[in-house]
Amino acid sequence: MDAKFKLTPFLQCQIVEREYLLVGISTTTLFPNGFPTEAKKIQHQLLKRKEHVQAVKDDTILISPFLCNEVLATYFACFEVKESVPQPEDMLEIPLKKTKYAMITCTNKTISEGYERLFRWMHKVKLQQKLIGATQLEIFYLEDGEEEIKVELLIPV
User: Fold this and answer.
1) Please, which of 15, 38, 68, 106 could form a disulfide with 29 given CB 3.0 to 4.6 Å?
2) Is the pLDDT of residue 148 over 70?
């Protein structure tokens, strides 16, 4: 991890507002049994094909929206793109309109703790998760050769 990463305030909750135009691939699996194995598989598949995604803003940032219930989860591996342009046929373009999110920064090794802390904070400050018209996001800041990387968890509110 670089020095900038180490200075980031980890496990501190905040409200952010963001919008994205994403392109990527997805998988659907049983929940929770399929996690994190299937999520990692789909991310690795996208990274192997990153040269096929056009107009990528930053190929070191992998964004994973997901939808789940008590039985199934659909998990995406995406790159943010600068504009809507033709992409490979098996990839989806996902526009996410400007949304307010409860956010916490953690690492790929502390995701469970990050979610626990974020949901406790949301409960404490009386924030309700938005279930319709928005999706949760996991944002991975990839660094070559690093086992532990920065991750942002975003819950729509």
Assistant:
1) 38
2) yes
Question: Are the C-beta atoms of 1 and 150 separated by less than 8 Å?
Answer: yes
- The CATH code of the domain that includes 97 is 3.20.80.10
pLDDT for position 120: 97
Residue the block writes with tokens 């930053």:
58
| pLDDT cut 70: percent of the chain above it | 94
Q: What is the pTM of this model?
A: 0.92
Q: Specify the DSSP element, H or E, that contains 122.
A: helix 111-124
CA torsion angle for 147, 94, 104, 150 (degrees, to 10)?
Answer: 20
- Cα separation, 111 vs 91, in Å, equals 26
Dist. CA 139–CA 120, nearest whole Å: 20
Q: What SS3 state is found at 25?
A: strand
- What's the structural domain count of the chain? 1
